[in-house]
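User: Sequence recovery, please. Input:
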């Protein structure tokens, strides 16, 4: 796999997770994007830690949402 292919796959994965946040939690695209890029999980996905990129988009969206809720002190 070329480096360009890896970048394209990663960009697609990020976009799909953001769209999943919108669908699952009724968020605007801007809000979902902000939540995604402020999460520690997004950093780990981009760094390839723990093969998170292999998990489903909706699963990762739910982890990111939980992380966001915890950062706000909500459940």
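Assistant: Recovered sequence (75 residues):
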């Amino acid at each position: 796999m070329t480096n360009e292919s890896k970048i394209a796959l990663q960009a697609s994965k990020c976009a799909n997770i953001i769209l999943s946040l919108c669908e699952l939690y009724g968020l605007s695209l801007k809000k979902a994007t902000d939540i995604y890029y402020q999460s520690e999980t997004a950093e780990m996905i981009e760094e390839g830690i723990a093969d998170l990129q292999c998990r489903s988009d909706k699963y990762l969206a739910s982890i990111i949402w939980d992380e966001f809720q915890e950062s706000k002190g909500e459940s």
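The chain is about 75% helix and 0% strand.
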